[in-house]
Amino acid sequence: MSESLKFMMGDFAAEFPTDRLFAKNHMWAMPQGNAIVRFGFSAYAVRLLQDIYFLEFGIEEQSELKNRQEFGNIESKKAESGLYAPMAGIVVRINERLLKDPSGINVDKYGDGWLMEMQGDSSELLSPAQYLEHLAKAWDVAQRTIKGQANTIDSNEE
Amino acid sequence: MVIASNGSIAPSGLLVVVSQGQSRSPEKRSLEDAIATIAASLPNTKSLIVPHLYDLASDSQSVKKMREWTGPIVILSWLFDRAGFWVLDRHEIRGQHGEVLLLNLDLVSDDEDEEEDKEDEKAADRVTNIAVRPSRKIYSIDMRSGGSGEVFAAEFRRILSVEQLDLPQKDLLSLARFLNPTNSTALSIDGSGRLDGNANGDAIAPVSHESPLGIVPLRMDEHPQRRWYPVIDYSRCTNCMECIDFCLFGVYGVDRGETILVEQPDNCRKGCPACSRVCPENAIMFPQHKTPAIAGAPVDAGGFKIDLSKLFGAPERDEDPAEAAARERNEQLILAGRAAVDFNSSSTESAANGSATATIEARVPKQERKPDELDSLLDQLDALNL
């Protein structure tokens, strides 16, 4: 993880190592060989979440997921969210240690704080540069989505 | 206080049970401890700390302990109060709803009275009208309701007064006897009170005291696995059997009186709330579901935190509850290695369960947040420096 790209979230510089791929839903993706990819939260996601208090997987190992299928949920100091499959495939491994102590994600998001490994078609994952483009494009929408929840009665945000 | 000869406790006081959250939030943990400590210091009150209520097995020590108590109970959990009440009911810790004034203000809507009136009209066909619960009161409190221990203390004192357990000096004598028993029969409670070799020595009693103040809560040292299963609100359930027909995983069954029950809770598919969507009476709760209406919120209300699901890849969906239920069930069938059911999920076909659809639309009203919550959300956002 020697080199990384930066994206400014307001005043906060989120860093993204260039030794791996990324998914549009703000997970990093490290190919492990044999079509297996390890996933974890990117700095962008962790910055939005901040201190993570609770993580739940709604599936077991060997479950087959469609792309974007919900597979769990997460709660942090600032937010909560469902967890959605970053690609289609079979979940071959879950990082069980995070169940006991989800703060492992905050401590080492690009290493021991990995979430799970999936085996499947990773062709739609993004390179670090592509992911940064995606972030730049999505940044306005992200801010609107977050602030929109506080400002609007109708929650049908983009 | 009377101590039964079998060592169990025949109470004449109030039992306050604090159900610990699964979350590691330090704020939550310290509030739990504060509440339990306060409860332990009140007259005629026993304080018990148990693991997350929803995860407890029926044969767990925590459940056994609560079942022994025949007097009024205050249950505090990080669940909606209705969910807390019916989880206890499921474990045969039953009673009548005790009125709680300490409410989760974010969840109280103006039309609540209206809703209650409607329920009264239909009261005749509810399961609880046939299988009447015992008369003792169970006060279920959502710990998200109050910020500080003091607020909870005030509510406990109010409940003690309602239960006529706030008697001062006179009763302290019998309590003192309970705390410092002088006969061997009474001492046996010490054995049952210390469960699983509690290393902290947080024994229930007797502990030597000058006064009841300073008694420590009894902490149940159990570590249950996480569970996922439906909880039925029998004050709403009409025993219509929609859920048993819909669920294809054998979760539901009926008792000898042919009343619906969650017979095989651990057959339930983790994360799947589909049966709650088809219940025409909104009687099925999944207390851990992130949608408040499904988790047992009194009225639909926003969560307490920002929902990042859309940023993290939640698909955009425009489906009615019956379609959602059919899709969720199919996802679970496939995950279980079974074939999906060809449940025509076009809106006309799924309207076979039209009443469910209407009910669920009704229970997801447009979200209205109170200004103070909005303010705090904005404060949180400011802290993000977005």
Topology at a glance:
The complex is a heterodimer of chains A (158) and B (386).
Chain A: E1 4-9, E2 12-17, E3 21-23, E4 27-33, E5 36-41, H1 43-49, E6 52-57, E7 64-65, E8 70-76, E9 79-84, E10 89-94, H2 97-100, H3 104-107, E11 116-120, H4 128-151
Antiparallel strand pairs in A: 1-2, 3-4, 4-5, 5-11, 6-8, 7-10, 8-9, 10-11
Chain B: E1 2-3, E2 9-10, E3 14-19, H1 26-41, E4 45-50, H2 61-68, E5 73-77, H3 81-90, E6 96-97, H4 112-121, H5 127-130, E7 137-142, H6 149-162, H7 169-179, H8 184-193, E8 218-219, E9 231-232, H9 242-246, E10 252-254, E11 260-262, H10 274-278, E12 284-285, H11 292-295, E13 306-307, H12 321-335, H13 347-350, H14 354-363, H15 371-384
Parallel strand pairs in B: 3-4, 3-5, 4-8, 5-7, 6-7
Antiparallel strand pairs in B: 1-2, 9-12, 10-11
Helix pairs in contact in B: 1-6
- Termini gap of chain A: 34 Å
Mean pLDDT of chain A: 87
Count the E strands of chain A: 11
Q: Oligomerization state of this entry?
A: heterodimer
- Taken in chain order, the helices and strands of chain A follow as EEEEEHEEEEEHHEH
Strand content of chain A: 35-45%
Please indicate the count of domains of chain B: 2
Please describe the structure with a list of short key phrases separated by commas or semicolons:
heterodimer, A: 158 residues, alpha+beta, OB fold (Dihydrolipoamide Acetyltransferase, E2P), disordered C terminus, B: 386 residues, alpha/beta, 2 domains, two-stranded antiparallel sheet
Summarize, please:
The complex is a heterodimer of chains A (158) and B (386). With 158 residues, chain A is of the alpha+beta class. Chain A contains four helices and eleven strands, in the order E-E-E-E-E-H-E-E-E-E-E-H-H-E-H.
